[in-house]
Design a protein that fits this description.
It contains two helices and ten strands. The chain is mainly β. The chain has a single domain, classed as Carboxypeptidase-like, regulatory domain (Immunoglobulin-like, Sandwich). Strands 2, 3, 5, 8 and 9 form a five-stranded antiparallel β-sheet that branches. Strands 4-1-10 form a three-stranded mixed β-sheet, with no helix packed on it. About 4% of the residues have low confidence.
Length: 144
């Protein structure tokens, strides 16, 4: 076997040391009605359990005081398809409080889908996250 062919085969068989492409993700929030409580942001790629994002292994979450939540930096995230969920937990109890199935606290989703009398579907809030610096803007909404 000639030397050039051997080197080519060895190079092709060597494991790649290139890291997968990543995004530097920032979440910009609009519409917060006050600076009370916490804002919780969760990013997931799990299409089956995205509404329970905080329970999904590998999901990326952040909680900050509502007064500092206008821009939340999530850092380096592998490029891919994701959904973002936001809760304005005004009373800091760790959940989205409801009355008769209607949210009493603020909420938002990537792609800012139209409000309907149901939770959004994956295809309404999923987005492709490319490599590089990316800002996702989410409008926080209130029903009550």
């Amino acid at each position: 076997m000639n030397r050039l062919l051997l080197l080519t085969l060895l190079a092709a068989a060597a494991p790649s040391s290139a890291a997968p492409p990543t995004s530097d993700l920032t979440v910009q929030l609009t519409g917060l009605r006050n600076a009370t409580g916490l804002v919780r942001v969760c990013l997931t790629s799990d299409a089956a359990r995205f509404l329970q994002c905080d329970k999904v292994p590998g999901a990326i979450g952040r909680s900050v005081g509502a007064g500092q939540a206008a821009r939340m930096h999530l850092g380096a995230v592998p490029a891919g398809t994701y959904a973002l969920l936001v809760i304005h937990d005004e009373n800091r109890d760790g959940r989205l409080n409801m009355t008769l199935g209607i949210p009493r606290e603020g909420f938002g989703f990537s792609n800012n889908p139209a409000m309907r009398p149901r939770a959004p579907r994956w295809d309404e809030i999923r987005f492709n996250l490319p490599a590089g610096a990316v800002t996702q803007t989410i409008r926080v909404r209130y029903v009550l």
